[in-house]
What does this fold into?
Amino acid sequence: MPVEKELTKLIPRIYKYNAENLGLFFFVKGQLAILPTMTLEQAITKYFKFIGSSPDDWDVLSARTTYNRMQTDFYQCGKNETTKET
It folds into this structure.
């Protein structure tokens, strides 16, 4: 039986997040890649401004938690899992 590839293990994790969280994650990743001196909070605030959200709707702490959780899920995929080889 073939061993599952690391990339295919990532796909179910991607689907469990909604489009807004995926947008936040990749927008922030792009901002931090382009401007390495930018803080995570600044990038999240820029995302909220970009999507046209009002400052009353912003919850930067929650967005930061979501971003960190997604980063852990995406980049730690398969590292803690054991593969069954037969």
Notes: The helical segments are 6-15, 19-34, 40-50, 60-75. Confidence is low (pLDDT under 50) at residues 82-86. The radius of gyration is 16 Å.
